[in-house]
Design goal:
Blueprint (H helix, E strand, L loop, with lengths): L1 H25 L45 H18 L6 H20 L9 H27 L3 H22 L18
Helix pairs in contact: 1-3, 2-3, 3-4, 4-5
């Protein structure tokens, strides 16, 4: 019964994230007082959103490029940016709110990436697109797990889940031949396949 409840909560969270992303993408969300441009949700249409919040600019999570949905690459940059914020705060119980905002930014970036099509799929494109979406689904599950651990104050478990998220990201980058732009983080970039 407990697993069934977890599945329900995870599904409800994913539904809420995707629904919020659809509202943002369609322009139905109301702009906040954060200085966004008229007709755009808060955090869009300008560079450098608040820490952990999506929509830091065109192509970022929640952002738009000439009316198109955000790119996978832009969403992944947003996810990595939010991941760095989460890593910096997750072990400090006094920074729970900051950590949650980073987790929510990662969840939004992940939801946006699922709606886009990666530009450089090699081989059987349809098969690779399914594989990409399965990896994004697995990432969403990890992010929902991390959110629960942060909310429950389970710091050690949250730190461990952040490591799982990094490992999943690195494995997916290697699988899809993504070369990381952030070489200064102590990780070597995945092979580009060329």
């Amino acid at each position: 019964m407990r697993n069934r409840a977890k599945s329900f909560v995870a599904g409800a969270c994913l539904f809420a994230l995707v629904g919020a992303g659809v509202l943002v993408q369609s322009g139905y969300a109301q702009p906040g007082a954060g200085g966004g441009q008229p007709g755009q949700p808060d955090g869009q249409g300008r560079r450098g959103g608040q820490p952990g919040q999506p929509g830091g600019g065109p192509g970022g999570p929640g952002g738009q490029q000439g009316g198109r949905a955000a790119s996978v690459e832009g969403s992944m940059r947003g996810l990595n940016r939010a991941l760095r914020e989460v890593k910096a705060s997750v072990a400090d119980a006094t920074k729970q709110e900051q950590t949650l905002m980073g987790v929510y930014g990662m969840q939004a970036a992940c939801a946006n990436a699922k709606r886009a099509k990666p530009e450089h799929l090699k081989g059987d494109e349809a098969k690779m697109l399914i594989e990409f979406r399965r990896d994004m689904h697995a990432m969403t599950v990890l992010l929902v797990e991390l959110e629960g651990e942060v909310l429950d104050g389970k710091i050690d478990a949250a730190v461990a889940t952040v490591k799982k998220i990094e490992a999943a990201r690195d494995a997916a980058h290697e699988k899809f031949g993504v070369k990381d732009e952030e070489e200064g983080e102590g990780r070597k970039p995945a092979p580009s396949g060329s």
